[in-house]
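Subject: Sanity check before I submit

Could someone independently write out the structure tokens for this chain? I want to compare against mine line by line before I put it in a report. The sequence has 366 residues.
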Amino acid sequence: MKILMIVSNPYTHDPRVYNEAMSLVNSGHDVTVIGWDRNNKHAIEEWNKNVRIIRIQNKGILRVLPGVMIKNPLWWRKAYRRGLKLFYDEWKFDVVHCHDLDTLPAGVWLKKKTNCRLYYDAHEIFGYMILDKPKIISKLSFWMEKKLIKHVDKIITVNDPLKKYFKKISSKPIEIIMNCKKIGSTDYHSPENDVFTIIYLGALNEHRFLLETIDVIKEITDVKLIIGGQGKLFDEIKNKCQQIKNIDFVGLVRQDKVIKMTKESNVVLCIFNPNNKNNQVGLPNKVFESMVCGRPIIITKDLYYENVVNDGGITIEFSKKSLRESIIYLRDNPKFCERLGKNALKKAIEEYNWKTQEQKLLRLYK
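---
Independent answer below. Compare away.
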């Protein structure tokens, strides 16, 4: 089967899209990805492990338009036209697989024009993710999703809360495919650090308690924090970390380095603001990364992801005091830390691994 994926990033750092594409290619399907290279940093076209990548760059009017919300309609049009050219000139795809709402309009147009099948892979509830934008933008997103989803043949999403949401707005078949990771080893290996090391690699935004975490870590002895990623707070976090001896800011980390770095840590950090609606239903990559590495994770209590973590980590209040106490306790109780890590790895082996998710994806396409 020939599958065209559309994603609003350059296909360089999105583990879900990469894993799905590789699983489909390895099972005998042909996959091409149309991505959006917003910073014009990558090749317009290339191959990566038998996946063809075609990138739309921010050039011409797309470059000068202000803000992503203004740019989006032009990105949809460019992705649609590139997909149409691909279909009629050289490669008649059978399915368009759209990742998130900010690609779905292009997918709907392609379905109408080519009569292909359309899969909507919703990584999150898009309207919740942009609640920090003007209310009219969020409302428009919810309206647009309800309108476009009528043209979808199947919905793919990441967890039960999102499945419940999509059931309310659509009668189309829904499949949950979680962002689980591949298991590298079924044996638990203890970290070999002279200093108790905490790691956070992910989105750098105000909802992740990162600036507060930096304030907490700098006051604790015999503890080190490694922090990296990209997002709105990149420069502020980078500048703040430069002044603190026990914090290393590593910037954007390549996806193939994340698991290795996580294994070299003692604890994974994933603190979410519980007042954010997107966080309330989220199930972040950090949870699954910590599991396959056999590392405990620190999370916020009373959020959905607590149901998945269970005894593979600890839950805390969304406060500096609670974070400080949990870090000190884990630092001073290595046996407890090890037990949590072994529990996490066991959960990955038994249930939360990419192999189980891959099977669901391949069944869906079969």
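---
OP: Matches mine. For the report I'm noting this point. The CA atoms of residues 10 and 147 lie 27 Å apart.
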